[in-house]
Structures are given as C-alpha cells and as structure tokens.
Amino acid sequence: MINILVTDDEKFSRLLIKEILEEEFEEKIKILEAENGHKALDIIQNENIDVLIIDSKLPDILGENVCKILREENKKIKIFLITGIKHDNNILELVDFYMQKPFNDEALIDAIKTIF
C-alpha cells in the first residue's frame, strides 16, 4: 500500500485529488490530508509517507519550503508540487513531479502510476 499525503489549504482541492486517486487506485493507496505545511511536516514525522502532493501556496509555510526541509532531512518521499504559478528551475530540482493548476486528472494518475 502506498501512503499519500495531500497538502492544500483549500479543502475542495484536497477532496478532488483524493477522489481522483481513490477512484483509480482503490485499495492500493491510503490518503492522508493536511491543510498547511506544518501539519504536513508533523504527519510525515509520524507516518510512513511515500508520496507528498503539495500546493505551493500554503497559509503558514510555502510548499517549496516544505520540499526544501524534506530534501535537507534526506526524506525518500516522492514530491508532487501542484501550483497555480510558474516556478524557477531551483524549485523544480526539489520535486519529482510538477503540475500546473488547473491540472488534468489523467496527468495526475499517470504521475502516480510511475511509482507503482
């Protein structure tokens, strides 16, 4: 089972991603949710998270800063950055996948399939 943490301050976005993934992968995944960066980091410290899907703009800490922390701690988590803004290459080096909002359901599914 793959543990996926969806981090976005917009509840609708979290629910949409969760629905897309559960419909496609059913019992192959377990999805946890966080509404901000600090909660995401807490969950990652206490759970065995395989994939982090994170929005770049969060109310407490930028998603890219969460990515930096995880890379500095040498966490072996696949990171999917979902954003409505364009980022430079320095940020892209921190993540495994980068998706611009609005994203295509199939693109998200295909990206997750690469880790199965």
UniProtKB/TrEMBL annotation:
Keywords: Phosphoprotein
UniProt KW Phosphoprotein keyword: yes
CDD domains in UniProt: REC
Location of 4-aspartylphosphate modifications: 55
Response regulatory domain sequence ranges: 3-116
InterPro entries from the UniProt entry: Bact_response_regulator, CheY-like_superfamily, Sig_transdc_resp-reg_receiver
Alphabetized Pfam families for the sequence: Response_reg
Function: May play the central regulatory role in sporulation. It may be an element of the effector pathway responsible for the activation of sporulation genes in response to nutritional stress. Spo0A may act in concert with spo0H (a sigma factor) to control the expression of some genes that are critical to the sporulation process.
BP terms from Gene Ontology: phosphorelay signal transduction system
Highest taxon of the lineage: Bacteria
Protein name per its UniProtKB record: Stage 0 sporulation protein A homolog
Coiled coil location: none
